[in-house]
Write a structure and sequence with these properties.
single chain, 232 residues, 3 helices, 18% helix, elongated
């Protein structure tokens, strides 16, 4: 893997982000200790069920560590040109989040009510703070389901998230993305005309496996996550 010049600066940024999360957690935990519990009986609170794991969707920016290229043929002189592509993009993903804080950083309490407005059943507690996050790219998930999950590589990754409230989370994840790239031999034809059966090649199709291949690259993504949950 070719390491770009800014790789170490990205690593420092990742370390700083994680350190800030832990610092905020520590400070927030001190403030939450004196927080009063909801006005329910002690028996109800002791029977609470941890529903911190959640599903959601995320949108954010991802940066690929490796250089990326696109291959184009000039309509003027039919020469092949290999151009550098942007190494960042916006992605939408599905998210599974599981709590790591066990509720010591605070959270929200929810309870079911009958038609008369009387509460019943256990108290559902959703903790805030640090979460383990798993993401799957929506497009890759759709393609995998159509072609068979066990026959496909799914774009996605793992990381940490900080749950701000019942609905929102900020996540930092390391992910693997599949990207179509020119095959190695095309770099030998840079600024040249490719001839096939004596005729110059005038177009390139990224779906053509003879000229392009699918590679999986490591990326770092920062996303805003919207979590789905019951609000009884």
């Amino acid at each position: 893997m070719i390491v770009p010049p800014d790789f170490f600066s990205q690593s420092k940024a990742l370390y700083l982000f994680c350190w800030l999360l832990l610092t905020v957690n520590a400070g927030h935990a001190q403030k939450i200790k004196s927080k009063t519990l909801p006005e329910w009986s002690a028996d109800s609170i002791s029977g609470k069920v941890n529903k911190g794991y959640s599903l959601g969707v995320s949108l954010g920016s991802t940066v690929v560590f490796n250089p990326l290229y696109e291959a184009v043929i000039s309509p003027i002189d039919s020469r092949l040109y290999l151009n550098r592509m942007k190494q960042s993009a916006f992605l939408m993903s599905t998210v599974l989040a599981m709590p790591l804080s066990k509720g010591e950083l605070g959270g929200s309490y929810f309870r079911k009510y009958d038609e008369s407005g009387k509460p019943f059943g256990p108290v559902y507690y959703i903790p805030y703070g640090l979460y383990l996050v798993a993401t799957v790219n929506l497009t890759a998930f759709h393609d995998a389901m159509n072609g068979g999950v066990f026959n496909q590589r799914i774009d996605g990754g793992l990381g940490l998230g900080y749950r701000i409230n019942h609905d929102l989370m900020v996540s930092l994840t390391y992910e693997k993305l599949s990207i179509r790239q020119p095959r190695d031999f095309l770099f030998d034809y840079q600024n040249q005309v490719i001839t096939i059966n004596g005729q110059p090649l005038t177009t390139l199709d990224t779906t053509d496996g003879g000229f392009f291949k699918t590679e999986y690259f490591g990326t770092m993504a920062i996303k805003i996550v919207y979590l789905f949950g019951k609000k009884s």
